[in-house]
Amino acid sequence: MAAGALWGLVAALETHRGRDRAVRALSYGCQLAGAALPGPGGLPGGLLAASAQLSSCRTALRLFDDLAMLRHSCSYGLGPEGEDALVRGLSVLSNVANQLYYPCEHLAWAADVGIVRAASQRWWARSTALWGCALLLGILRSLRILFQLRRKLRQHKCSPSPQRQQKLRAQVKAELLSILMDTADLCNAIHWLPPGFLWAGRFPPWLVGLLGTISSLIGIYQASRGANSEAA
Question: What is the DSSP letter of 194?
């Protein structure tokens, strides 16, 4: 079992998405630990510096994500015909927000490094706002799916098929985790917006690290569950 888990970890780290999840968790974990430890220098300062560098690494790697996002958006299109209309609409809007997020972030990055002349803070704010919109749409989509799943569970309460009920409960759990993950990220996204909007700029570094760590661990858990389901 230990060998299987090790090889599963190796296989995940060999993929772009798997490596990004690991770097994300490590970045937020370093921020949480660095902000929680006393003292600005020494180990706490080093952990915060490592967190910043890992975050910059992820930003650079996202320069290549536009086409992958475009392929996903095109493959989904307006959604399958049998899917709920509200779920389809929310998914399409979320795809649009995610698609626009990438060029905005690329322009902000290019302005920061001096490739283009632009006010990088404006583009960072726009990319963060688009990310927040995509997260909010994802939460609404999950709530809608959760409502449908609970209705199906009530309909199948007297059903003689325990496998069907178990599958529905697993889907409910997955949607609840998605809501928790997206909510944690949305809290951070609002914090990174320009001051004056809700709690923008008011979170202490340890809280940002905690929310990001929670979101990252949920993402890793969901990815591992998905991989196990495919293997089964």
Answer: P
* Owner of token pair 């283009």: 116
Q: How far, in Å, CA of 51 to CA of 33, rounded? A: 10
Model pTM score: 0.91
Token pair belonging to 111: 């302005």
Tokens representing 229 are 């389901």
Distance, CA of 190 to chain centre: 14
From first CA to last CA, the distance across the chain in angstroms is 15
Per the listing, tokens 């998405």 go with: 17
CA distance 55 to 62: 11
Distance CA 79, CA 73 (A): 10
Q: Please choose, from the candidates 176, 136, 61, 23, the residue with its C-alpha nearest in 3D space to the C-alpha of residue 168.
A: 176
Q: Where are the alpha helices (DSSP H) in 120-161?
A: 120-155
Taking only the tens place, the pLDDT of each residue in 147-191 is 999 888 777 665 657 777 788 888 999 999 999 999 999 999 999
Long-range contacts of 113-122 (CB under 8 A, 24+ apart): 121/194
CA dihedral 40, 42, 43, 48 (to 10 degrees): 50
